Amino acid sequence: MKIMLVDDERSIQKAVEYIVRENGYDFVYASNGLEALKVFPKESPDLLILDVMLPGLDGFALCEKIRSFSEVPIIFLSAKGDIVDKGIGFKMGGDDYLVKPFSAMELEYRIKAVLRRARHMDEEVNKEHEILKIGDLAIWLNEYEVYVKGEKVDLTSKEFEVLAFLAKNRGKVFTREQLLDRIWGMDFEGDINTVTVFIRRIREKIEADPAKPQYILTVWGVGYKFRPK
After folding, report:
1. What is the mean pLDDT of the chain?
2. Which CATH number belongs to the domain containing residue 20 in this structure?
3. What is the DSSP-derived secondary structure letter of residue 175?
4. Which domain holds residue 218?
5. What is the pLDDT of residues 10-30, one digit of tens each?
6. Taking Cα atoms as reference points, which of 131, 132, 133, 135 lies closest to residue 208?
7. Which residues contact 205 (CB under 8 A, 6 or more apart)?
8. List of E strands, the chain
9. What's the whole-model pTM score?
10. Domain end (from 85, 112, 128)
């Protein structure tokens, strides 16, 4: 999982990075609100830690902008601990509020608690909608919808069925003949290369680099499989 810090104090950046990496998370940071708005879509962090007193666009305003397109969990950092500031933070969409100075252990506990709540909410949504989440890819099985980094990808129904079938059987290799039978049916009279064409189209839509796929992998001389866990 990846945690993003937005803070202009170098000492805070170093301290938070150490805490985050020591607990096994990836780390990325931005020094101000405008930079954060550029970095956020590229990095797709699982948690944001925002300083309230940022140059230019402050933490509260930044949170409000991010909430217009993302439900990522947010922890505010602030030197102010009065109830008014905390109230503003929660009203803008924050999930927690930590007052400076803070201990490494306290930040660690807050991070784990917020991520645990977020995971629980995701699990509830997944149960209702049957969502497969793999990396930056989200496959909504009931809705026939696919998202990459939160952006909807337009797949045909057959492209979706190929992708969903492979994703539900992660790590298992299928020959082109098997995929043809499972997706198109035994009575399909088209060319076996139909599968190859569909795999290429799907990769072009969901992979960052279709020439170096990260999701649908080719097993040379055999067939295809979805990236193992």
Report:
1. 86
2. 3.40.50.2300
3. -
4. 132-226
5. 999 999 999 999 999 999 999
6. 135
7. 146, 153, 154, 155, 159
8. 2-6, 26-30, 47-51, 74-78, 96-99, 131-134, 137-140, 145-148, 151-153, 216-219, 223-226
9. 0.54
10. 128
Residue 174 DSSP code? B
Grouping H, G, I as helix, E, B as strand and the rest as coil, residue 26 is strand
**Nearest-angstrom CA–CA distance, 153 and 106:** 40
Same domain assignment for residues 121 and 143 = no
Nearest to 8 by CA among 43, 41, 35: 35
CA-to-CA distance for 32 and 104, rounded, in angstroms?
23
CATH number at residue 167: 1.10.10.10
- Rounded Cα–Cα distance for residues 93 and 88 (Å): 9
Measured CA to CA, the distance from residue 119 to residue 45 in angstroms comes to 14
**Is a pLDDT exceeding 80 seen at residue 107?**
yes
Structure confidence at residue 127 (pLDDT): 56
Looking at the fold, whether 88 and 187 belong to one and the same domain comes out as: no
- Are 119 and 152 within one domain? no
Give the number of domains in the chain: 2
Kindly provide the residue ranges of all beta strands, DSSP E only, lying in 84-201, ordered along the sequence: 96-99, 131-134, 137-140, 145-148, 151-153
**How far apart, in whole angstroms, are the C-alpha atoms of residue 119 and residue 77?**
22
pLDDT of 121: 60
The structure tokens listed for 123 are 């699990």
- Does residue 65 share a domain with residue 116? yes
Of the candidates 132, 222, 221, 215, the residue with the CA atom closest to the CA atom of residue 173:
222
